[in-house]
Amino acid sequence: MTVDERKALIAKYAAGYDEVVDALEGISKDRLTAHLIPGKWSACEIVQHLADSEMTSALRLRRLLVEDRPVIQGYDQELFASRLNYNEREIAPALEAFRAARTTTLQLLELMTEDDWQREGTHTESGRYTAEDWLKIYAAHAHGHADQIRRLHQASEK
Fold first, then answer.
1. pLDDT-based confidence at 135, cuts 50/70/90?
2. Angle between helices 91-111 and 131-156 in degrees, nearest 10
3. In angstroms, what CA-CA distances link 18 with 35, 45, 48, 57, 106?
4. Distance, CA of 50 to CA of 118 (rounded, Å)
5. What phi and psi, each to the nearest 5 degrees, are found at residue 68?
6. How far is CA 32 from CA 45, 75, 158, in A?
7. Distance (Å, rounded) from C-alpha 153 to C-alpha 141?
8. How far apart are CA 122 and CA 109, in angstroms?
9. Contact between residue 42 and residue 33 where contact means Cβ atoms under 8 Å apart
10. Residue 81's closest CA among 59, 123, 53, 54?
11. What's the pLDDT band for 158 if we cut at 50, 70, 90?
12. Listing from the earlier edge strand, what are the strands of the sheet with 127-130?
């Protein structure tokens, strides 16, 4: 990955929180927990997932930076959603956790050296896992879920 490609991904990562907040705009409170598309998460569940995922990803990057060849544990996001009652919790604390984890991690991304970017571990589900792999995944993650929220909002207007 070139330095410019990395910078573009960091900028995308930095914009992820605002993208989600923008996507939530105009969704009524009663629609936040509605399953407007069969088999898909509600907007509330998406936000709760983003909070948990962001906190998990923040720790993953930190482990890559400080441990030698860490094992990065995968997790069952559907089990998290059901066992952690995603659709029964207020989204404001989840949005704040998502924002805070992303903000502190962005500080690290902006300070990382070339050697830091080459650090790697092993992900229990996908194998070799580097800081660059991490960035590719999480730069796009919030944007993908913001698009999902927009589709839910469109479905609620029909």
1. very high
2. 150
3. 23, 18, 16, 18, 14
4. 26
5. -85, 115
6. 8, 25, 16
7. 19
8. 20
9. yes
10. 53
11. low
12. 71-72, 120-123, 127-130
Question: What is the set of domains in the chain, with CATH numbers?
Answer: 3-156 (1.20.120.450)
| Structure token pair of residue 16 | 């992820």
Query: For 35-94, how does the pLDDT look when each residue is reduced to its tens digit (9 = 90+)?
Result: 988 889 999 999 999 999 999 999 999 999 999 999 999 999 999 999 999 999 999 999
Which of 126, 97, 138, 114 lies closest to 12, judged by CA? 138
To 5 degrees, how large is the angle CA 34–CA 53–CA 61? Answer: 165
Q: What is the mean pLDDT of residues 13-41?
A: 92
Indicate the residue type of 29.
Answer: K
Tracing tokens 């993650």 back to the chain, one arrives at 141
